[in-house]
Amino acid sequence: MSSLKKQTFIILFFGLSAIGAAIKIPLGISSIALDSAPALLATILLGPIYGAIIGAGGHFISAYLGGLPLGAFHLLIALEMGVIIYLTGVLCKKGTPIIGLCFFIICSTVVAPLPFYFILTSAFYWTILFPLFVGSTLNSIIVAAIYKPLQGYLNRTGFYA
């Protein structure tokens, strides 16, 4: 794949992540956004490093648009998002994307908020689990529905050449 094609798709997925970040679905004490789906697509189609960068950046955009309710904690959350999406990409390359997406759902729901159990309160941790589960599952369903047709289209058009 040419450098220009890759750069174009990185910018495209980053833009889609920003659009997804602007789509807020209120849920409990939080809202969920669709900023992870483009990062997950990027990690499957372009590679884990690109997906991780887009995922962390998409989280910053989502946090900014949401008013930064956790302030500086969003640095930690963005780092976690980058690592989780990177590892999801590695799993997708070694196995199937469905295994990677299940890993993403589990890590985004249970593992990523774990530091806040100790930093904030256990009540915050338990309260945030359901919105995180819904958000990560919704983002994963979107990716599961479109990655295969999109990958087939990219193969037919010579994208990876």
TrEMBL record:
Instruction: State whether keyword Transmembrane helix applies.
Output: yes
Family matches, as Pfam families: ECF_trnsprt
Asked if the keyword Repeat belongs to this entry, the reply reads no
Q: Which GO terms describe its molecular function?
A: transmembrane transporter activity
User: Organism's domain of life?
Assistant: Bacteria
Which Gene3D superfamilies does the entry mention? 1.10.1760.20
Q: Name the UniProt key words of this record, in alphabetical order.
A: Membrane, Transmembrane, Transmembrane helix
Transmembrane segments in this chain: where? Answer: 6-27, 39-65, 71-91, 98-118, 124-147
Report the protein name in the record: ECF transporter S component
